[in-house]
Amino acid sequence: MTKTNPRIFVLDSSVLMHDPAALFRFQEHNLYLPMVVLEELDNGKKGISEVARNARQVSRFLDELLSKNKQLNIEEGLSLDGIGFAGNGHSASGKLFFQTRHSGARLPDSLAGHKADNSILAAAIALQETHPDRSVTLVSKDINLRVKARALNIAAEDFYSDQVLSDVNLLPTGIAPLPADFWESHGKQMESWQTEGRTYYRVSGPLASGWLPGQCVHLDDASDFQAIVRRIEEQDAIIELATNFRNPKHSVWGINARNLGQNFALNFLMDPDIDFVTLMGNAGTGKTLLTLAAGLAQTLDNNRYREILMTRVTVPVGEDIGFLPGTEEEKMTPWMGALMDNLEVLTGGEHGGSWEREATNDLLRSKIKIRSVNFMRGRTFVNRFVIIDEAQNLTAKQMKTLITRAGPGTKMVCLGNVAQIDTPYLTETTSGLTYVVDRFKSWEHSGHVTLQRGERSRLADFASDAL
Question: How many C-beta neighbours within 10 Å does residue 117 have?
Answer without folding.
Answer: 18
